[in-house]
Design brief:
12% strand, 6 strands, alpha/beta, Helicase, Ruva Protein, domain 3, 4-stranded parallel β-sheet, homodimer, Dna Topoisomerase Vi A Subunit, Chain: A, domain 2, 2 domains, globular, 206 residues
């Protein structure tokens, strides 16, 4: 039952907040009442930042990440290795890899993975531009860093089928036991793969 | 470590969202990316509703609830019983009681409870106007519906000390076993009170 709000302004704010994923009516009300206790600038800054984000957002023409300009800071950086392209599902995975400081190449944000259940086929994803980039002489390697789900594997295979025609090395990120994890707490599929894909030992660490 | 955002617009929106209680950086990023996938009107409506709420909010001059006008819909309703005032901590408790459809009197929103730990004394709460209303001839009963915490009990006692000088009946909401709960799962304090405050049996239900 919709509760009786004493104010239409409040009711409206709560309704808009509940459109966000994972935010129910009680949480939305708590957030709205929190904003009412803050200086007006806090609510203004929040509202403006959300509107501005959606209205002024741009996507990099090369890698399709969210960007403030036509070409993102990574794609426009001459110090990055432009011969390697890491394919990710969305910007969050790209940020996660950037945070490791272990990768110096470029990215390609697919915008999802193939999912017949959700009606997402190759046509709904940014694949054409990836194939065009892979066909360029300067591209040496395409790293597939998609999630290890059925959808991710399907997408990996689809990309691989097309990319093997191009003159590029196709690799995928290593799956294995996370650093610091116990072997007997690791699921069987991961443990099995980590044995099959064992690597030459190079001394301390890996 | 602060991650590297590919867009200042996105970084800004995430930072503003993380100011909200219970929303961390990962959740904020998820919300921002969700808004980017929606039509621009959704983000616009959310942003506007939040700004408008904070800028145009008004409080009822009688009961201090959030209201769109000088006097809220409850206080300005002649069909409500103006001789009874229910004292609540905040608007959420008021909404919870309204939703029961069991109460036809007015409310008084204190705006908190006495909490020396948080530096909230009687002066920080809307008490003076409650005492003024209680002193009016038309007021018969003041119902204390504050939380059953140390702070709530302290506030109850403080209000009672002053209100007993006025010609009003002071009552408090019944504490007891929630309807449908098992006796042996109820905490001892609640069960103890429900025996001490037992009521005359009136046949089926209660």
């Amino acid at each position: 039952m919709e509760p009786s709000y004493s104010s239409l302004l409040l009711q409206n704010a709560v309704q808009e907040l509940t459109r966000l994923p994972g935010i129910g009516r009680k949480t939305a009300l708590r957030l709205a009442l929190h904003l009412l206790r803050q200086p007006a600038e806090i609510a203004k800054a929040l509202g403006d930042s959300v509107i501005k984000l959606r209205e002024e957002v741009r996507y990099c023409r090369n890698c399709h990440t969210i960007s403030d300009s036509d070409l993102c800071v990574i794609c426009s950086n001459p110090k990055r290795d432009h011969s390697t392209i890491c394919v990710v599902e969305d910007i969050r995975d790209m940020m996660a890899i950037e945070n490791t400081s272990q990768y110096n190449g470029l990215y390609h944000v697919l915008g999802g993975v193939i999912s017949p259940m959700e009606g997402i086929g190759p046509g709904e994803l940014k694949m054409e531009s990836l194939f065009n980039k892979a066909a360029l002489l300067e591209t040496n390697e395409v790293i597939l860093a998609l999630p290890s789900t059925v959808e991710g594997d399907t997408t990996n295979f689809y990309l691989y089928k097309t990319l093997r025609n191009a003159e590029v090395t196709v690799t995928t990120i290593a799956r294995g036991i996370p650093v610091g994890d116990e072997l007997d707490y690791t699921d069987e599929i991961t443990l099995g793969r980590s044995i099959l894909n064992r690597q030459a030992y190079h001394g301390m660490g890996s």
